[in-house]
Amino acid sequence: MRFVDEYRNGPDAQKFLHAIQELVTQPWTLMEICGGQTHTLIRSGIDKLLPPQVTLVHGPGCPVCVTPLEMIDRAIAIARRPEVIMTSFGDMLRVPGSSIDLLGVKAAGADVRMVYSPLDAVKLAQKHPDRQVVFFAVGFETTAPGNAMAVWQAQQLGLPNFSILCSHVLAPPAMEAILGSADSQVQGFLAAGHVCAVMGYWEYEPIAERYRTPIIVTGFEPLDLLHGIYMTLKALEEGRWGVENQYARAVTRAGNQPAQRLLSQVFQVVDRPWRGIGLIPNSGYRLRPEFAAFDAELRFDLGDIHVEESPLCIAGQIMQGLKKPLDCAAFGVLCTPERPLGAPMVSSEGTCAAYYQFARRVE
User: Fold this and answer.
1) End position of a domain, from candidates 218, 245, 272
2) Host domain of residue 348
3) In contact, 111 and 138? CB cutoff 8 Å
4) What angle do CA 299, 301, 305 make, to 5 degrees?
5) Buried-most residue among 135, 253, 287, 359 (CB within 10 A)?
6) Of 185, 197, 228, residue with least CA distance to 46
7) pLDDT value at residue 360
8) What digits encode the pLDDT tens for the residues 253-270?
9) What CATH number does residue 100 fall under?
10) Beta bridge partners of 165
């Protein structure tokens, strides 16, 4: 496939692996922040081909995985209302709440629909003026502009029956929380290229300086990741820190400024709880007061929802890079894609799903 196969070239991958082997003189631990990158690393076997001194750990870069259990239960409570059409992306529908997922609610008779864009939900609201259409809006900065545009468009159209359940999270505060933890093992970061395509990478520069950590903006194909790993290791071996851009074909330092202006117009930054991790200050979005009419949490009286995670699930430790899925006693036994204990087993970007599909075959 043009523009893709060139980043999956086997001989070029071998050159990067040889260069990494020649470069490394001591142990290093790197973290990729994006679940899509995790899947490429595990599916391609890159984690097994690197020198033994290089350890890859996997960050909380799956927005579905870090959506709090309470938020999923709120979505389920809204979806059960007879006047509601609940919409979201496909993998969000399979993430377990405290007792059921959205697909289970759909099977019980609720009107739950998979959409490919939040603008599809806006069209549904136009088509069904007698129903309340709710879009379950999750994601990092990558999907946030589309959700912001849906809210902005609904306001322009004067749609009183459209709202979003907002659970957006932000990458830089999560990286800073990991680096600031006393238990952190991370010495270098592979930053998510699609987030930086929207936001640029200027936000990462003070983090790299504060923690004296190299942060490399990296793409998603095998050669992107090998190149990013090489750049990170080279900086570590040379005692350098700062931000470098491997993904220059898609990312600039400033990012997509029209998208950033739309985000600041529709959303405000707030503290957000992350599933399995806890509250991270200034790590999420919610709608600004002038768009509060489109906030599903305000529109529907949900009461207090407090739930407990399964004590068998170690997803929080996995997403902080402290453990890997194969360290979990429930992995592949009590926790499978068909009967998951946590979101990372069912999300299309979940670390546990990646290990279940690919890593088990070579262990």
Assistant:
1) 245
2) 315-361
3) no
4) 125
5) 135
6) 228
7) 56
8) 999 999 999 999 999 999
9) 3.40.50.11740
10) 136
